[in-house]
From TrEMBL:
PROSITE patterns, alphabetized: PA14 (PS51820)
Similarity remark: Belongs to the glycosyl hydrolase 3 family.
Key word Signal present: yes
GO molecular function term, any single one: hydrolase activity
Protein name, as recorded: Glycoside hydrolase family 3 C-terminal domain-containing protein
């Protein structure tokens, strides 16, 4: 575009009183496609490339604002404070309530809009984690319980994942007939992705046969594209059959666009294009990687720094790609922004009017409590150990997760206004003076740290000296200094400054002290941060990393008596994440349960709250503990320190109620012996503590069902990197301690004989089942009726596949006839002869009951003619 043309456009853009749009891209009455086409015609090649980066530069002379594509809304508007934090998706999946999920994500999108416009109207620019594009939901199949990110998914079943994912997208994006999208949701990570975290950047999957691809790994993505009209799809890191997913024309063109009809944008996982030439070695450099990605179908690139997509102009010069190819991708990118109303005045975008008062309002808090209650999954209740009486003289609440509020949030979370810990929740049922609380043990470590923080001093003052700068480099003018006398635990969550005058973003700090040990011994440093963290002793770096979450490292270090050790922590806030720093050090001593048992004399009932936390399982984590690697697990047993604690409690004659908090399945075979009751609580969000207490004390009758198989042990899990489904999930194995779909209630249900409106159908016909469900127990409750289908004589197919479910609420003594319609797609399986998913003639077994276990199911046969 010549300079005169640019000047004319700029004059129009900045005319404050202009009423009528001067150029088509500024006219809100035109379609997004028309506007995008016009704007593209006015851009330089360099500007086009910039707009295809997840952090897009502004173009002031054209009125194009800075835009960021990366925000998260996994279970609330992530990396923001004062938002509602719902349970992790794996917990919400246990509700089998996609209708409620729609309302939850409608609330999440309200809060995202309110937060975004509040930020922009304060004079700020769009930035990471404060945008209208949200990279949610994660609809990967949780095929292996060792995967640390499985907590972000809706479990191991393709149908349940599809139903939940569709509800999430519809809630986030708003009504389909609205002029503007509320948000742009994203189906991730496409495709065939579920760990391990440690090898995802170089892993090549070449043993996934077409049947497993289309029946297991693809259904949720297809459903989100065709049923929910999802506006973004994120391609994954690894290779599938030698091609990186973000450079895979089979995935991005033939399947996604040609077979499914997806017409919107594809975004890369962060750094995935860089992997082309650094780990996958399928491209020689950034120029080739960028052109390969765009030609394959990737439209937006995310990376921490040094965007390969900025090299697209050079790729055009070298004839590696045509400018028309770039325009094609950019068209999809800009249509997304126009669909959001990003180029229009807020006054004509209804979603921009959502007030900040919606943030964590009473309605949203109630939704968080409702879904947390419905996620509670009762796995064992020997001799009706639950519910507990509220008339206890004394009850013990112990365990590493009992009073841990951040644990309840899981990962990819925001920070709520208030969080009800499990201890807090129990205190709403029983007076505090009747509760004995003790942490009892650590999540993983079988030792307790005796803090030496109080033995430190600097410049004659006890503790650590903290020095702060309002820049990320620890240079220039010092803002303030302070003396810290207790173990460091700092956060900007809730808009809290680290110290007076220190900014909430872009600041840095040094924490330093001198320590002179009294004896020669091995001590441990324990600490971590969200942001840049570097621990030095006498000027030597002991630990260093830059991460998006606070990870507590355990660092052994030998000290000599009388020698002075200068301890320093270098920190800077980075990457738009809330700042956190934690640090303590001291001597470890062995856990001794004798003192704990002595404390519990006179107490019969013990609630032990343990399991895992987001500090142990999550995305590509640099901290490793025994049994954990890079955010994944190397085995699925409960950490031995907790297992031994539970055993000691049982041997002491206590009635043990185990509340297990985790984002994944744990092998609980020994716990079925040492515990009288087991409640799977997942990571239940801001109101999780109250939901747990409601179930424990009978104020809510649990109805959750497992969205994943709980295996007896780790022995038969096989190779983590083997994506073949053989022996994995309920669909390909019957070996389970607690099967998929299982969950107990405080009442009893009876499922009668099903009747089908017809037993023989054509391939395009539906079947309606009428199934009597009766509450024959002593309490009102909810049963989740499940319907599974298997094609008879299907030798290499799944044992059964979930194809329908229904929440049935019943009063004591009530019977209802549940009506379940099975559309033609319920009978769809992969047909090798046609090389596609289709309905074929033959006999089908339709199983129905309250779990996937054979003994919990009845069956009828349906013939497709």
């Amino acid at each position: 575009m010549n300079n005169i043309r640019r000047i004319l456009v700029a004059a129009m853009v900045f005319s404050a009183l202009s009423v009528k749009a001067q150029f088509p891209y500024q006219n809100p009455n035109l379609s997004s496609e028309e506007r995008a086409k016009d704007l593209i015609s006015r851009l330089t090649l360099e500007e086009k490339a910039s707009l295809m980066c997840d952090q897009s530069d502004p173009i002031p002379e054209l009125g194009v604002k800075r835009f960021n594509w990366w925000s998260e809304a996994l279970h609330g508007y992530a990396n923001n404070d004062s938002v509602t934090v719902f349970p992790e998706p794996i917990g919400m999946a246990a509700s089998f309530n996609d209708k409620l999920l729609y309302h939850i994500y409608d609330a999440v999108s309200d809060e995202a809009r309110a937060k975004y416009h509040q930020w922009i109207r304060a004079g700020n620019e769009n930035k990471r984690f404060l945008s209208l594009s949200v990279w949610t939901p994660n609809v990967n199949i949780f095929r292996d319980p060792r995967w640390g990110r499985g907590q972000e998914t809706y479990g191991e079943d393709p149908y349940l994942t599809s139903r939940m994912g569709v509800a999430v997208v519809k809630g986030l994006q708003g009504p389909e007939d609205a002029k503007y999208r509320k948000l742009l949701a994203c189906a991730k990570h496409y495709a065939v992705h579920s760990g391990p975290e440690w090898s995802r950047h170089e892993l090549n999957l070449n043993n996934v046969n077409p049947r497993e691809l289309y029946e297991t790994y693809m259904p949720a993505f297809k459903a989100l594209v065709q049923e929910a009209d999802v506006r973004q799809v994120m391609c994954a890191y690894q290779r599938l059959d030698d091609e990186p997913c973000c450079g895979n024309t089979r995935l991005l063109q033939r399947i996604l666009r040609d077979e499914w009809g997806f017409k919107y944008l594809v975004v890369s996982d962060c750094g995935a294009i860089t992997d082309f030439f650094t780990t996958h070695n399928v491209s020689s450099d950034a120029v080739h990687a960028a052109s390969k990605a765009v030609l394959s179908g990737t439209d937006v690139e995310c990376v921490w720094e040094n965007y390969p997509f900025k090299n697209l102009p050079e790729a055009v010069e070298r004839d590696l790609i045509k400018e028309e190819d770039i325009d094609k991708s950019l068209m999809r990118v800009l249509v997304g922004r126009f669909d959001l109303g990003d180029f229009d005045n807020d006054s004509i975008v209804p979603w921009a009017q959502i007030p900040a008062s919606v943030l964590n309002n009473e309605k949203h808090r109630q939704l968080a409590l409702d879904i947390a209650r419905q996620s509670m999954t009762l796995l064992q209740n020997r001799n009706n150990a639950l519910p507990l009486s509220k008339k206890h003289k004394k009850i013990a609440v112990i365990g590493p997760n009992a009073n841990d509020k951040p644990m309840l949030w899981g990962n990819y979370n925001g920070t709520p206004v208030r969080t009800i810990s499990i201890l807090d929740g129990i205190q709403t049922k029983i007076a505090a003076d009747k509760i004995l609380y003790d942490k009892a043990c650590d999540l993983v470590e079988d030792k307790v740290t005796v803090s030496y923080f109080g033995q430190c001093s600097v410049d004659g003052k006890p503790g650590f000296k903290a020095t702060y700068w309002n820049n990320p480099t620890r240079e220039g003018d010092i803002v303030t200094t302070q003396q810290i006398v207790n173990p460091i635990k700092m956060t900007t969550a809730g808009q809290h400054e680290f110290a007076s005058g220190v900014k909430l973003e872009g600041f840095s700090a040094i924490y330093e002290t001198d320590f002179v040990p009294k004896v020669s011994e091995e001590i441990v440093f324990k600490g971590g941060a969200t942001g840049y963290f570097e621990l030095l002793v006498n000027g030597e770096t002991i630990k260093k990393y830059n991460n998006w979450r606070t990870l507590s490292s355990r660092i052994p270090f030998k000290v000599e008596a009388g020698q002075k050790y200068k301890i320093q922590i270098l920190y800077n806030q980075s990457n738009n994440w809330q700042a956190n720093v934690e640090f303590d050090f001291g001597k470890e001593i062995d856990v001794d349960y004798t003192n704990l048992i002595n404390k519990l004399k006179g107490v019969d009932d013990v609630i032990f709250v343990g399991g895992l936390s987001g500090n142990l399982e999550g995305e590509e984590m640099p901290v490793n503990y025994p049994g954990f690697k890079g955010g994944d697990r190397t085995n699925i047993e409960l950490p031995s320190v907790q297992r031994n604690c539970l055993k000691a409690l049982k041997e002491a004659g206590k009635k043990v109620i185990f509340v297990n908090c985790s984002g994944s399945a744990i092998a609980l075979a020994p716990e079925t012996e040492s515990c009288d009751a087991i409640l799977q609580a997942w990571y239940p969000g801001e109101s999780g503590g109250l939901a747990v207490a409601d179930v424990l004390f009978g104020d809510y009758n649990p109805s959750g069902k497992l969205p994943v198989t709980f295996y007896e042990n780790s022995e038969k899990l096989g190779d983590f990197e083997d994506y073949s489904m053989k022996g994995k999930t309920y669909r390909y194995t019957t070996e389970a301690l607690f099967p998929f779909g299982f969950g107990l209630s405080y009442t009893q249900f009876n499922i009668g004989e099903a009747k089908a409106d017809k037993n023989s159908i054509q391939p395009n016909e539906s079947v309606e089942l009428s199934i009597p469900v009766s509450n024959v127990g002593q309490h009102s409750g909810t049963e989740i009726l499940q319907v599974y289908i298997r094609k008879v004589n299907d030798m290499d197919g799944p044992l059964k596949s979930l194809r329908a479910y229904e929440r049935v609420e019943l009063a004591k003594g009530q019977t209802v006839n549940a009506k379940i319609v099975l559309p033609p797609s319920s009978f769809e399986f992969y047909d090798w002869s046609q090389r596609k998913m289709t309905v074929t003639k033959g006999e089908y077994e339709v199983y129905y009951g309250n779990s996937s276990k054979e003994a919990d199911l009845k069956k009828i046969r349906i013939t497709i003619l």
